[in-house]
Amino acid sequence: MKKLSTRTRVVTGAVAVAAVGASVVGAVSANAETPKAAPATAVNSDVQNKNTFQSTHLTVEAATKAAQASLDAAAKAGQKISVAVVDRNGNVIVELRGDGSGPQSFESAERKAYTAVSWNAPTSELAKRLAQAPNLKDIPGTLFLGGGAPVQVKGAPIAAVGVAGAPSGDQDEQFAQAGVDALNK
User: Fold this and answer.
1) C-alpha distances in Å from residue 12, one per residue of 5, 6, 7, 24, 44
2) Distance of alpha carbon 158 from its chain centroid, rounded?
3) Residue 28 predicted with pLDDT over 60
4) Of 4, 9, 28, 152, whose CB has the highest number of CB atoms within 10 Å?
């Protein structure tokens, strides 16, 4: 086999790179066309109802209304709080840190809301259950102190309001309940 000069190898390599580049550009431009519509069977397919369920969720607007009502109730009482509203799965919908609230209150409000929705009960009631089941406090993300109130539809939890930052759990829960009550107005 004949040995190629450096110049020939460089030119041959450049031609190869140009050819690969042109094919990539061609492939990209070919794929940049408007995609064709999916087959009608894919568009019209439907999961059977036995494999699904429907649930009720708060809107962001409703969650914001509840959070603001909690902040307003606390402000009337001269308290600086944080408030969290979570959905049925414990995911935060809205979280507001009140002016002047303590740094721990933000996370505590979220954990109280998560706890209230998880057990569908005010956290002050759940705190009483710790005497019979002290291991409950070890469940990640929970906080068994007064200040969480569930939002229910037909007795089932769909959300919860959690408040933290007032001097007592009773006050926190009073402000959380004010948020829940605002949803009924």
Assistant:
1) 11, 10, 9, 19, 53
2) 14
3) no
4) 152
Residues near 120 by beta carbon (within 8 Å), at least 6 away in sequence: 150, 152, 156, 157
Query: Confidence band (pLDDT; 50, 70, 90) for 103?
Result: very high
**Sign (positive or negative) of CA dihedral 82, 73, 80, 104:** negative
Q: Where are the beta strands (DSSP E) in 28-176?
A: 82-87, 92-97, 148-153, 156-164
pLDDT of residue 54: 82
Closest C-alpha to 67, from 92, 100, 104, 88: 92
The whole-model pTM stands at 0.73
Tell me which range, 5-14, 16-25, 45-54, is most confidently predicted by mean pLDDT.
45-54
